[in-house]
Amino acid sequence: MKLKESQQLFEQLKGKPCIIRYMPMDNPSTIYKWKGVIVDVSRTHLLERDRRGRLHILRLSDIVEVTVQPENEQLNEQSKKNNDGGEANA
Question: Cβ–Cβ contacts within 10 Å for residue 10, how many?
């Protein structure tokens, strides 16, 4: 896929929670996985914010796979964060 096509694809995914797998050129033996929201897209890079609020800059050419999280999975993660773990099973 050409960079122009991938840039347009990521523009459509902007603001949606995604799981991004990428393999950096300087360490091709490792595939990293980020869960977060795509914040911005340039001609060659992608700006992504993870669940802890940290920003990551990824090269479009390094991205291997992008999966959009379904709505119910987002709700499950949010409920896990809100649950303090103090509930007892009867």
Answer: 23
